[in-house]
Amino acid sequence: MTSAPRDREIAVVAFAQTDHRRTSEELSEVEMLMPVLHEVLDSTGLKTADIGFTCSGSSDYLAGRAFSFTLALDGVGAWPPISESHVEMDGAWALYEAWTKLLTGDADTALVYSYGKSSPGSVRDVLTRQLDPYYVAPLWPDSVALAALQAQALIDAGDTDEPALAAVASRNREAATTNPHAQVSGTVPQGDHIVQPLRTGDCPPIGDGAAAVILAAGDRARDLCARPAWIRGIDHRIEAHGLGVRDLTDSPSTRLAAERAGAFERPVDTAELHAPFSSQEIVLRKALRLGEDVDVNPSGGALAANPIMAAGLIRIGEAAARIHRGRSDRALAHATSGPCLQQNLVAVLEGEPR
Amino acid sequence: MAEVLKAPLVVEFPFTRSLGPVQSAFLTGLRERVVLGVRTGDGRVLVPPVEYDPVTAEELGDLVEVAPTGTVTTWAWNPAPRRGQPLTTPFAWVLVRLDGADTALLHALDAPGPAAVHTGMPVRIRWAGERTGAITDIACFEPYDGHRAEPTGHTGEFEDPVTGIVAAARLDYTYSPGRAQTAYINALSGRRTVGERCPSCRKVYVPPRGACPTCGVATSEQVEVGPRGTVTTFCIVNIKAKNLDIEVPYVYAHIALDGAGLALHGRIGGIPYDEVRMGLRVEPVWTADARYPDHYRPTGEPDADYDTYKELL
Ligand SMILES: [Zn+2]
């Protein structure tokens, strides 16, 4: 099931994120996370004990800290024991799990959070450990290198060129000037090639951050939020793990997820895309058939702040927050995982008519 | 606030992985300078070969030899090679479709500079001098516009096939324990044990982690506890740990330091192991330059009443 049944509607009712920064060495993960947990609870007036289900997303590899998600639970107030789950994925997938849990009727409210502390390690190298361990990981191809292979494929196909990539980067960072949480905003030089054809400006900033969302079902959502962001559909799809098997200039998994989430049934006015590299926005716009009339990444997207494991959840949160504020009526949120947009999640959110 | 502590942390782990029949044939082939693909139900040849069809999930096993020559399908110039990558001098990452294959293989291309690389360029495998049955048996690719080698029709049967790989991994971190644990460790260097009190339930956490797991709020009020404490429970260790110079049997105990809201653990010394008991009053014993107590020994006080520590068990 990928579309919400009419008799069990679920909405994002609160969203919070940290200011994303290059380093947060003075804070442990739970210390970094706690303020956003408190912010979403305070904004809904809920207490930990009122939350029916809690789900988080994170990866111990980022900070090199084993079982960090169990320590992060301290910030939730998990004693006496709560109903809780964790995914070793971006928080967008934790939200997907929480959404299914609410659909079952087992809970009416859910707390979803995720965090990433990339500053203690070398994230380009850390991410090589998620690759095929037989044929790929022994070569240590870093995350920028793999994105650069995709970018060159797009250039060869005539889908983009370096100036067009620079324009994507500059538009996102310009939009981020109104986002107080952004790590990088305004005019940023494109810089040198990190791995050609990608330059510094085409790559996301490396940083630490956290985000939290509260989901609620039906009337509970209306009680907790003046204008809930209803999840009309949500779906995620994955492609083959072999890079050489895929057409890197396209994202059939994004298109299929969008189709199953109902994204093509009516136009959206806003899209928050999780495209850590400028070239990936080119792929996603094409796969999602986004026209010029859609406001893409008003937050600045992942090129403005990319706390790994949280950046996808933040896309859903940003889209929902625009609906909360009355700035959007129908928004698409996208999250990605793996190299070169390997796995993609699409959610469609709507506000009730004003 | 004192500066947060930092220390290098190296995480190293060798993964020992077994191979499926297709992976085994492919990697054994590389050892023998033979490149094998696998044919799918619809006739495509996948290189590198996989055990299951990525589209239909059908089990695959029809091995086909392909050529060591091929064509670049996309590339990316890497001006600054990183640890573990195939070449130490600047190189191009490439996806290469070998002659006879329908899919591409990721590897490195040794070329003088980005101007010498383009999509569609012909390349060939440069074999590693020493080969073990691993993807790194291909040292890299090199530009090659000569004769396209013909496969010999190898069937994928080998003497002494490789059945597993050991994939070594190393990641380097600069570890910081954060604010609360930095304060705890700094206090220990002055031989004091400092926890943090929850502003909501008043419980004192030692060592502090920065949050109260019951209330979900930050702890910040620092509270010195101990140095004396009470054994709340214990066990007798009869197995000698590697690299640990302590005679067995010895006692390892949960110790509630006076003023702490939960017990920490430590070794009990200065008393025969079979005389340690719940309620025993103990104090820390520091050795020169130690960063934490070496062990705890009896204070000689009367045992604590059960009621005084039953909530801390
Ligand atoms: Zn408390």
Description:
The complex is a heterodimer of chains A (354) and B (313). Chain A contains twelve helices and twelve strands. Chain A is of the alpha/beta class and 354 residues long. Chain A folds into two domains: 132 residues, Peroxisomal Thiolase, Chain A, domain 1, CATH 3.40.47.10; 202 residues, Thiolase/Chalcone synthase (Peroxisomal Thiolase, Chain A, domain 1), CATH 3.40.47.10. In chain A, helix 4 packs across helix 12, helix 6 packs across helix 10 and helix 7 crosses helix 10. The model of chain A has no long low-confidence stretch (mean pLDDT 95). Chain B has two domains: 161 residues, no CATH class; 87 residues, OB fold (Dihydrolipoamide Acetyltransferase, E2P), CATH 2.40.50. Chain B has a five-stranded antiparallel beta sheet, with no helix packed on it. The longest helix of chain B has 12 residues. The model of chain B has no long low-confidence stretch (mean pLDDT 94). The site of zinc ion has 7 residues of chain B, from loops. The site of zinc ion (ZN) has 7 residues of chain B, from loops.
Secondary structure layout:
The complex is a heterodimer of chains A (354) and B (313).
Chain A: E1 10-17, H1 29-44, E2 53-57, H2 60-63, H3 68-72, E3 84-87, H4 91-103, E4 109-117, H5 123-126, H6 143-156, H7 162-175, E5 193-195, E6 198-199, E7 208-217, H8 218-224, E8 229-238, H9 252-260, E9 270-272, H10 278-287, E10 295-296, H11 301-304, H12 311-324, E11 330-337, E12 343-350
Parallel strand pairs in A: 2-3, 2-4, 9-10, 9-11
Antiparallel strand pairs in A: 1-7, 1-8, 4-7, 5-6, 8-12, 11-12
Helix pairs in contact in A: 4-12, 6-10, 7-10
Chain B: E1 7-18, H1 21-31, E2 35-39, E3 45-46, E4 62-66, E5 69-78, E6 91-98, E7 105-109, E8 122-127, E9 138-143, E10 164-175, H2 178-189, E11 193-197, E12 204-205, E13 211-212, E14 217-218, E15 221-225, E16 229-237, E17 250-257, E18 264-268, E19 281-285, E20 295-298, H3 306-309
Antiparallel strand pairs in B: 1-10, 2-3, 2-4, 5-6, 5-8, 6-7, 8-9, 11-12, 11-15, 13-14, 16-17, 16-19, 17-18, 19-20
Bound molecules: zinc ion.
